[in-house]
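Below is how a single chain appears once it has passed through the pipeline. First comes the sequence as given, then the structure the pipeline wrote out for it. We keep one example in the README because the format questions we get most often are answered faster by looking than by reading.
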Amino acid sequence: MNVTLIIKIAGVGLLASIACQILQKSGKDEQATFVSIAGVITVMIMLISEISQLFSSIRSIFGL
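Resulting structure:
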C-alpha cells in the first residue's frame, strides 16, 4: 500500500467531514448524509485495486 493512497484517503475523509459539518450546521441533513455516503463510496473505489492485488497474492501463495 502506497503512502500516497493513504494520503488520498485521508484527504477524501477530511473533505467529506468538513462538507458534512457545513451542511449539518445549515440544516441540510439529507445532503450531509449523501456527502458522507459519497465519501465512503469514493474511498471504496480507490481501494478496489488494492483488494484485487491482495486476493491475487493470496491465490499465488496458496496455489489456488
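The chain has one domain: 3-62.

See the next section for the split statistics.
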